[in-house]
Amino acid sequence: xxxxxxxxxxxxxxxxxxxxxxxxxxxxRQRKNQTLNAGSQEQQSTPNEDFMRLIMEAQxxxxxxxxxxxxxxxxxxxxLEDEILLLSVKTEGSPQPTMTLSLAPGQVDLQxxxxxxGPSYVGPFQRVEPFLKWILAVQIFFAxxxxxxxxxxxxxxxxxxxxxxxLVFYSNGIKQFVLGTWAGFKSxxxxxxxxxxxxxxxRNQIQHLSMKDTKLFLTYSTQARTLQSMVNFYNPSFSxxxxxxxxxxxxxxxxxxxxxxxQLMGKEPFIYGYFEGRVQTFYNGLPKRSxxxxxxxxxxxxxxxxxxxxxxxxxxxxxxxxxxxDSQGRYHFCKKTCGSAPGACAGPINQNYIIIPSDxxxxxxxxxxxxxxxxxxPPRASMAGKLTQAPAGQPSNQLxxxxxxxxxxxxxDLDKALVAAFQEIDEELCLxxxxxxxxxxxxxQIVISLxxxxxxxxxxxxxxxxxxxxxxxxxxxxxxxxxxxxxQLAMDNQATQPLILQxxxxxxxxxxxxxxxxxxxxxxxxxxxxxxxxxxxxxxLSQFRLSVSISLQSLKCDKTGRFMFDY
Length: 567
Known about the structure:
alpha+beta, seven-stranded mixed beta sheet, 10 strands, 15 helices
């Protein structure tokens, strides 16, 4: 009976480990209670039995408590193992949720956008060609990466700039830039990164291009086309016909004659590729021009081409010049018959080339030679080649005496290479005088007559101007500019300070000789130097699609085909 009760008690705590010792009843206590309840007639137990009963109850309570503690510890360890297993093992099919940014249509994720393969701008600052080349590369980069949003383009460009001045400009205005458009940001970037009037300077370079003897025509034309593409960057104001006119002005005379004879500039419609191909064909058909031009037969005073004059040494050349001047009575310093004694001439030195007749033979130079006194009066050309004075170094037969003077070294010691170089320069100068005169190219300005209401205006069309300017004296209604402009008039060469424009006016102009009208023109108001009322530049030409013909001195409207000729 006791064994059965003990076994049941051992199994009890495993099912209910949370029971305390007060809820459990020892079998010895149950037996005592049963004995007391049986009757008071039974004999009470002895002290030894009670003591043994207490010891056994204490042992029983300790065993029950230890069993409950082991069960609770086992349960805690099982739970701890489950938690550790959940932390160490990543179950498949249950990915952790990731945060996704909400992007507008067309935007890119700037945090993950890679700009390492984009074009970087490293300068130099305010150089036209590197900057324009970088802008083109940026546009290609945006097209390949499919970047179309304005804010994305402005933010990405900032990571492509490495030039210090542009970085400072970008960092100072980035908060305002992202609020605007990509076109507005580019306009501000162009105004800061490029020098003032950069298009005007490029047009000036095109105007002064010339085809040298050692340059191929294709190279010359490609250089002109490159400059034209930079001028027309986002503002096509320089037409192919105007470019062809400047290219023709830079050709050498043989090619210019062929272009004019075949009327290449009169083809309608004008195509620059066709023009370039025809001129290249003419250039290939011309005889090759030599690098060094040889001087041909000269006048009767020069030697014939078949006669080869032997080269003289430096001393003999100087003595030949002195002897020839002495024979004509001319002074060695000014090369004139001034009548001055040696060392007393007050005139300027004459370094022109001395033409000595081929039949002149210099006498031997005597020892102790001293320059004689120059003759007074006009030179006697009829006595060229003959002695008009006594032989060099001998007393003169004339009444005038020769004062002694020390020998002044007018011709320093020159080696053979320098003498040969001076002879080559003299030959080139003589040849340049004999060549045909080439007239200077016409100015890139056209004067036209315009009407503003009933007022006649004298207008100047200048392809180098980047603004439209009207005089204050015309009397138009003016309005203040939001942003004043600072300009420098090319016609006012004496002006030391730039001109600040603060007002503008709106006007409608017309041609009194045709039905051409130019409505809604925005004109800056300011003073104009010269007899002009208005200056029209590239904005006027591009707005109304006008082509300037410098050779014909006229304007052509591409829309109507009408012409406006120089006033």
